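Reagents: none. Just compute today. Acyl-CoA synthetase (AMP-forming)/AMP-acid ligase II.
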Amino acid sequence: MSVAALLEARADDGRPGLRRAGGDGAWTWREVVAESAARAAWTTSLGDTAAGGRDRPVHVGVLLDNVPEFVFLLGGAALSGSVLVALNPTRSAAEPAGDAERADCDLVLTGPGHADLGLFDGYYREDAPDRLRDGMFWSGDLAYADADGYIFFAGRSADRLRVDGENFGAAQVERALAELPGVRQLAVYGVPDAASGDQVMLALAADGFDPAAFAAYLRGRADLSPKWPPRYVRVMRDLPATASNKILKRRLVGDGWQTDDPVWWRPGRDVAYRRMTAEDAAGLRAEFEKRGRLHLLERSG
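Predicted 3D structure written out:
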């Protein structure tokens, strides 16, 4: 079923359809459809020459990490006839992922005939000519599709992690951890691994941290891939954020595990956490230096 068909089928559905940020209630399906339809009308007007628009196919660039706005924009694009395609940048054709562990597809937006976008010249103070390629807009978002053709947001391209050879998006792990009790905010991001690739790090805004309860929660999540449990857990009073409450992951990534905040970690493969000590941190730095990757730590901390 397409996104447009799904929305049309739920137009009169009064049941909850989209949870609000922070757990403050939910939008009903009827409200989701109404919000999407309003954006579809705006999108269509862009191509209406009678309304001063352009007589060409309409294309909409959607920043999918702007929850929940991206859901309404996605719905509006679908209802107005725009096309969303997930492409693997190393191949020329779409490659749907069979499960959530595949997140190596970049989300691009185009329209009928792959026509020129024509709606805007670019981003303010951003020189990114690679955003427009072959008449398609590369959004910088990661996505995967299931066997039924549903497209799922998997994070920003900058949030791509590679752990033990497996690629996945930070947003996938964040969704799996979203129901952690006693947590006000959380963010998942990659930090360097001493050998190669990344390790998963989690920052929590919480008043305390129970490592045993956290490990039990992870073991009880059937939707958590074996590579997803965080190697490091940083506990903070509040996560750094912009004025619009968008978490500043780049600051968290810059700090890594070299911070004055308490950090728990699991040294081995077992899902068991202990408090990181000064001796632990020194041992990690020595391992990075031994493998010629100390420069990755010196960029942070």
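Residues 29-46 form the longest helix (18 residues).
Action item: order primers for follow-up constructs.
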